[in-house]
Amino acid sequence: MELSIRPRRLRSSDTLRRMVRETRVSPESLIYPLFIVEGENLVEPIPSLDGQWRYSPDRVCEAVEACRAVGVNKVLLFGIPAHKDACGSEAWNPDGVVQQGIRAIKAKYPDCYVITDVCMCEYTDHGHCGILCGHTVDNDKTLEVLSKTALSHVQAGADMVAPSDMMDGRVAAIRRILDENGYETVPIMAYSAKYASAFYGPFRDAAGSAPAFGDRRGYQMDPHNRREAIRECALDVEEGADILMVKPALSYLDIIREVSDTFDLPLCAYQVSGEYAMIKAAGAAGLIDEYRVMCESALSIFRAGAGILITYFAKELAEAMGKGDLG
């Protein structure tokens, strides 16, 4: 058969396939989530997240060192305090668990890029992401404590803050307090399109942040909605966000693509705990090739339009990139 156009020509060897790849990634695009628990000399395995641990502030640098060994130099910190109350007051404690963790990391690895999650769910005794008025989260009162929390993180040495609460106006409130205190150059990565997803279960176990009653559908997005994600991102752009985020990733690849096409800010995606846990469990059961599925799932997120990926697989993906299996 006479065919002048044969796409298979460019698939004929590994060298050629690598040369013409459309999607290229590197360890620089990866962020590793870290759980910091109050206490001393603690490295606790997380049963629902195979291969992940909670670290006390004095041991957290061990996790950072393991990341750096494979080329991952960005971490996202989540705090688990010993004391929780209705307003989550430990969140902005200058000597709180995240603040301790930031200082420990920066003292040993000053060039490690430290991002902090800014939310109340890990700190409140009711597990919701803000201040309650009855059984409803009060949006505007929550902005006050989110702002104080973000400022305390930056004062402890955080390089970037990432509000994940989904309160209206939180980016503007945080930008205002940072600017007023001389932190105009500290960027905000907004959890802009964060859906009320069923994929968060293992994280809530890891952080002890499951709601004591109800759910979070009153502030996180309805999974049915696409246009609303664009509206949320547009509002965060107007309020001063520097990086947008879509969370979760795999079930929302269409949202990642649309946000990427619509806005010119950098776009992050979060491959959340449930996505990680499913791959690990299926791999352990022999149902899939865990390594290949890990690579393929990450690649799909980048191909959809994300330029940054938060993932519990960050170290393994960096190693895969080094082997040329991804990137």
TrEMBL record:
Zn(2+) binds at residues 119, 121, 129. One of its GO terms (biological process) is heme biosynthetic process. It is an enzyme of class 4 (lyase). One of its GO terms (molecular function) is zinc ion binding. It catalyses: 2 5-aminolevulinate = porphobilinogen + 2 H2O + H(+). 5-aminolevulinate 2 binds at residues 273, 312. Gene3D superfamilies: Aldolase class I. Mg(2+) binds at residue 232. Keywords: Heme biosynthesis, Lyase, Magnesium, Metal-binding, Porphyrin biosynthesis, Zinc. The keyword Iron does not apply. Its EC number is 4.2.1.24. GO terms for cellular component: cytosol. The active site is at residues 194, 247. SUPFAM superfamilies: Aldolase (SSF51569). Its cofactor is Zn(2+). The keyword Magnesium applies. Pathway: Porphyrin-containing compound metabolism; protoporphyrin-IX biosynthesis; coproporphyrinogen-III from 5-aminolevulinate: step 1/4. 5-aminolevulinate 1 binds at residues 204, 216. Belongs to the ALAD family. Catalyzes an early step in the biosynthesis of tetrapyrroles. Binds two molecules of 5-aminolevulinate per subunit, each at a distinct site, and catalyzes their condensation to form porphobilinogen. Homooctamer. This is Delta-aminolevulinic acid dehydratase.
